[in-house]
């Protein structure tokens, strides 16, 4: 996903003469935010397919194929048709990978195993190695060839390589991953299929009639994510298949969901506001010898993740039961990402391409530290707190917080401009810090509700 996303915004708002589609910059940023939100929103469908029909491992494999097909569409199909087909396939496939891969990782550790957070940090390391390579190579190829389509094609090749190696080693994964833990009765499968077909038809009609447009997409996705989140929490808190202990754990996850959404609303601006910032405000020259492509600036953050994820995993393993509770880690991560945005305030007014690269690299290091306290820990916590009947779907609920944050990153981008950037970064960063402090104050009560889960 990140390989294509590194050049996606530029592809949308660059002029047609420069190989782009010529979209308005604000609309393009909103679409990128909505796309990111849809990626994580699709984890609901993917989690349901894993829990009720096919098992998480088989959904994971099919989702990887969808991502590859999406990149092929972006590479080969021209204009808006290629953009729409490609983004839909990549979004659906990426959601399937994110929801079900986390479940498979969790299956490698028993309940109460203190190595689980460390295991998710190692898993996160692998994810970011791929993101790093994609975000470095794709913009370089696109810049050298002056073709966005060749850049998207490279992402498809990388996905094909990853899919091939996974196909060779998938048989060594736990057998339970191929089994749906809460299988849908045969009598209900036809109804589910019909509902799915109706939803697709309705979406096509709304798009064809102009109800769903590029300019409205981010707000539409925001509403859908909000409704889906309320529905998910309601179902889990009222289901007869969820016992008292599990219900209290789901309730404890609610403030963690809010903290996560706020965190990602800032972090995912790497792909919206900070992508524009890298193009227009950042001095990308290296010692006057060469210039880093704007899209490759996004690779700085996953580079730090690759360097530090192992360190975090080692620390959590070494501390064992003495490590901070997961809610504490997530609250601190939210505070740190807010601090990262505040660090942009002193850089306001540096002019066109006047911000020094080391300053932004340092801010992205702060982002990385916050991410390592939020994302792998949040994924791990969702598996720890998950009711038995909603194991994969609880992971999807966590990813809904990422979905909300991602689409808000597109919505917020419309309020950013060079003229008001000090206020923009200052207010947004301060809001995140405030949320983190509130959640940190709630940690003692959350520990009680979590019923022994750390």
UniProtKB/TrEMBL annotation:
Domain Major facilitator superfamily (MFS) profile: 1-447
TM helices/strands, residue ranges: 27-48, 122-142, 148-169, 190-213, 219-238, 250-277, 297-319, 331-349, 355-374, 395-416, 422-444
InterPro entries, per database record: Dipep/tripep_permease (IPR005279), MFS_dom (IPR020846), MFS_trans_sf (IPR036259), MFS_Transporters (IPR050171), POT_fam (IPR000109), PTR2_symporter_CS (IPR018456)
Residue runs in coiled coils: none
Gene3D superfamilies reported for this sequence: MFS general substrate transporter like domains
CDD domains in the cross-refs: MFS_DtpA_like (cd17346)
Domain of life: Bacteria
Membrane topology: Multi-pass membrane protein
Keyword terms: Cell membrane, Membrane, Transmembrane, Transmembrane helix, Transport
Record localization: Cell membrane; Membrane
UniProt record similarity statement: Belongs to the major facilitator superfamily. Proton-dependent oligopeptide transporter (POT/PTR) (TC 2.A.17) family.
Name of the molecule in the record: Oligopeptide:H+ symporter
Species name: Pseudonocardia tropica
């Amino acid at each position: 996903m990140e390989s294509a996303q590194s050049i996606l915004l530029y592809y949308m708002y660059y002029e047609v003469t420069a190989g782009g589609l010529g979209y308005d910059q604000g609309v393009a940023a909103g679409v990128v935010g909505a796309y990111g939100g849809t990626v994580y929103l699709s984890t609901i469908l993917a989690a349901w397919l894993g829990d009720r029909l096919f098992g998480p491992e088989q959904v994971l494999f099919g989702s990887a194929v969808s991502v590859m097909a999406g990149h092929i569409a972006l590479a080969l199909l021209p204009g808006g048709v290629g953009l729409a087909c490609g983004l839909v396939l990549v979004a659906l496939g990426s959601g399937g990978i994110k929801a079900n891969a986390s479940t498979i990782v969790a299956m490698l550790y028993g309940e109460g195993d203190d190595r689980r957070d460390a295991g998710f940090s190692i898993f996160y390391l692998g994810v970011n190695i791929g993101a790093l390579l994609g975000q470095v190579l794709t913009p370089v190829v696109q810049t050298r060839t002056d073709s966005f389509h060749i850049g998207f094609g490279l992402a498809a090749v990388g996905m094909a390589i990853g899919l091939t190696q996974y196909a060779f080693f998938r048989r060594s994964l736990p057998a339970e991953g191929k089994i749906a833990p809460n299988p849908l009765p045969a009598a209900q499968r036809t109804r589910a299929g019909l509902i799915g077909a109706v939803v697709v038809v309705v979406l096509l009609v709304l798009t064809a009639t102009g109800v769903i447009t590029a300019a409205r997409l981010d707000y539409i996705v925001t509403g859908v994510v909000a409704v889906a989140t309320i529905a998910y929490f309601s179902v889990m808190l009222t289901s007869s298949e969820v016992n008292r202990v599990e219900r209290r754990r789901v309730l404890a996850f609610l403030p963690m969901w809010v903290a996560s959404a706020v965190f990602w609303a800032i972090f995912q601006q790497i792909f919206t506001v900070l992508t524009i910032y890298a193009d227009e405000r950042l001095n990308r020259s290296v010692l006057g010898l060469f210039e880093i492509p704007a899209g490759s600036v996004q690779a700085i953050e996953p580079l730090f993740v690759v360097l530090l994820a192992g360190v975090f995993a080692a620390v959590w393993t070494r501390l064992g039961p003495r490590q901070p509770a997961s809610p504490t880690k997530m609250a601190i991560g939210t505070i740190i990402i807010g601090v990262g945005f505040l660090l942009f305030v002193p850089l306001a007014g540096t002019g066109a391409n006047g911000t020094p690269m080391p300053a932004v690299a340092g801010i992205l290091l702060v982002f990385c530290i916050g991410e390592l306290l939020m994302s792998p820990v949040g994924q791990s916590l969702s598996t720890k707190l998950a009711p038995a009947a909603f194991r994969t779907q609880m992971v999807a609920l966590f990813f809904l917080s990422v979905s909300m944050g991602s689409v808000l990153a597109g919505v917020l981008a419309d309020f950013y401009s060079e003229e008001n950037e000090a206020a923009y970064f200052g207010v947004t960063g301060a809001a995140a810090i405030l949320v983190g402090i509130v959640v940190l104050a709630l940690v003692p009560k959350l520990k009680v509700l979590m019923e022994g889960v750390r």
